[in-house]
Amino acid sequence: MDIDLSLASPAWTAVADGLRVRADHPCTAPTSPDVLRDHPGRLAAVEVTEEHVLLAVDRLRSWPLFWAARDGGRRLLVTDDPAALRSGLECPALLAPAVAEMEDAGFVTGARTLLRGVHQVPQGAVVTISRRTGAVTRDDYAFAAFNPDEITDPEDFAVAFLDALGTTMTRLLDRLGGRRLLLPLSGGLDSRLLLAWLLRHGEAGRVATFTYGVPGAREVEVSRRVAQQAGVPWCAVPYERRALLEHWHSPATAAFLSASHCWSALPHVQDWYALSVMRARGEAGEGDVVLPGHTVVGNMHDKQLLDAVPVSRATAARAIIHHHHDLQGRPERAGADPWVAVAVREAMTLAGFDGSGRTLRSLLEGYNLRERQTKYINNSVRAYEHLGMDWALPMLDAEVWHTWQRGTAAATATRDLYRVIVDRLWARATGASEPESAYYEVTRVDPRTRAGLKGVLAATHLLPAAERVFSTWSSLHSETAFDALFTDTSRARAAVGLLSGRKTLGLWTRAFLRDTWCRSAVLFRDLPVVEE
């Protein structure tokens, strides 16, 4: 099998004969799962030997890698460039099962992609392809499974967590030198933790914060007050629908969407408009480093199942499907999808799922991190790269990841202890006895009042309807004006869809796949759709 290697980024380095690496830090064996398990920072590697081709990505999937057989299996295309996949295939076509899965989830599971015959290296994996037979094997070295060696004392866990964050942040700052840090300040826990750490360690002078939203949005006000208390620069980008849509339908957005979907997920567009405006205003520049609050924390869902262990495989599978594969309000379709079944079974194997509480947490959080977090959330970094900026995700680096996996259910299944950790560090960093501004919440209803209302509604069988009505209203009155991106339907039809069970991302995903999301983008409509 001959190898067609098409690596578009100039950041790749030939470190040995047949070995190319793109990484923040030197690695002794960049295609060894045992070495990569603890390797810090970002990394992708391609190694070509006489017998095999090895493809490796880090636990973030910082820079996606793809491969596809060509000429009847006589050649192998390996690339980091999504555009090269389409141009390098003899008869490019979309896979119908992949399109359906992406409509339901916003991503394509496992090593599959939207394109027939094209594969990707999953998060935290090394793929080995035999040049003689074409056989493919994979080592998933970084699936997020909880460690049975737990840190049981909450105070000890808090100390270990901050120590791990300190290690990753210190290493990051050493790598970056004096470059400016741009912090998207949402008013929530994650961005406030990063800001508190930087203040505590004397780095306020290199930090600039920003936020965005419709004029008068609560999240913008919370963000402003947090930045004011921290004493760091802050700017806001108003999301006014007319200006937002004008930019959204521009060729610039079409180019971004084309470069960022990686044939496997809806592009993450949350920061795109804000940073585009900031670049135009000179408030963000080439070489700036964006620090979004993406984190290993908070990936648990369906926490009530922890009170019902042992949990059956069927129950756990339903929880995953209803949480991740329900963007169109049709989880029964995803439940019958053999592609989804394969992804869930793979995750169960990697989590060592046996129905216990620890392996249930490993399964739910591991699937979340491997699929949605990596392919959709973390992929927001493509926007930063497209605008000429750098990025880092220190709360997803190896040390923080490993420490979180030693947490008990009491410490990690909710954000309660995490909030205590953030509050304490914020108090030490700012000298404030408590945050000047409350954390941003979608609703300002007191938690006890909300719990009481939910109890009454549940008793009268009105809770699902009430939750759907509230969710629909919130989606149509977004504080970030994202309801303006319902671009291929009227608000009335969007409301009907939302009330019937569709999600905002479901409406976006269907429009994206139909090339009706951005008027300047023509990505899929000229590709045939095939079953296999």
UniProtKB/TrEMBL annotation:
Coiled coil: none annotated. Pfam families: Asn_synthase. The keyword Lyase does not apply. It catalyses: L-aspartate + L-glutamine + ATP + H2O = L-asparagine + L-glutamate + AMP + diphosphate + H(+). Its EC number is 6.3.5.4. One of its GO terms (molecular function) is asparagine synthase (glutamine-hydrolyzing) activity. Pathway: Amino-acid biosynthesis; L-asparagine biosynthesis; L-asparagine from L-aspartate (L-Gln route): step 1/1. The keyword Transferase does not apply. This is asparagine synthase (glutamine-hydrolyzing). It comes from Actinomyces respiraculi. The lineage of its organism: Bacteria, Bacillati, Actinomycetota, Actinomycetes, Actinomycetales.
